[in-house]
Amino acid sequence: MHPNARRLVVGAIILDNLEQPTRVFAARRTSPAALAGLWEFPGGKVEDGEAPEAALVREIREELVATISVGPEVPHASGAWPISEKYEMRLYFAAVETGELASGNSHDETRWIAPLQMHTLAWLPSDADAIDAIRTTLLNWQA
Q1: DSSP code at position 116
Q2: Per the domain annotation, does 80 fall within a domain?
Q3: Along the 143 residues of the chain, how does pLDDT read in single tens digits?
Q4: Is residue 2 part of a domain?
Q5: Max CA pair span of the chain
Q6: What is the spatial distance between Cα 106 and Cα 111, in angstroms, rounded to a whole number?
Q7: Is residue 60 part of a domain?
Q8: What are the C-alpha distances in Å from 39 to residues 10, 51, 56, 109?
Q9: In a domain, 110, yes or no
């Protein structure tokens, strides 16, 4: 990786159903302290040589003890959602294939919410930036 390149992280917008989604999964972080209490689309860092979709499957299995199928990506004009000078994020719609979404150590609460209710949660800033695009995509998906 180039020394000035941003590290890629991935997030899963887990839906109750990839064909006709009506609810979105949200998880409230417990750490680090600066982010505790904020809601996120779960995910994590992409390792060197790892495909973003594979990283997402791995991270959800590690964090939430479930296997997901990865669907379409939420597009961003620059290809990835900027988080900071060090990180950028790609977001993918997903659905649970096997297992149940468990809170694990990274989260103290989880919820299934309707797309129109997404704005009612206090999201991580990087995830909040994508809420409008996600909601618009889901509302058009449902049409």
Answers
A1: G
A2: yes
A3: 555 688 999 999 999 999 999 999 999 999 889 999 999 999 999 999 999 999 999 999 998 889 999 999 998 888 888 888 899 999 999 999 988 887 777 889 999 999 999 999 999 998 998 999 998 898 888 54
A4: no
A5: 44
A6: 14
A7: yes
A8: 15, 25, 18, 9
A9: yes
* Domain carrying residue 113: 7-140
Contacts of 106-109 with CB under 8 Å at 24 or more apart are 106/27, 106/29, 106/30, 106/31, 106/42, 106/63, 107/27, 107/28, 107/29, 107/30, 107/42, 107/63, 108/28, 108/30, 109/27, 109/28
Indicate which CATH number applies to the domain containing 123. Answer: 3.90.79.10
- When divided into structural domains, the chain yields a total of 1
To the question of pTM greater than 0.85 for the whole model, the response is yes
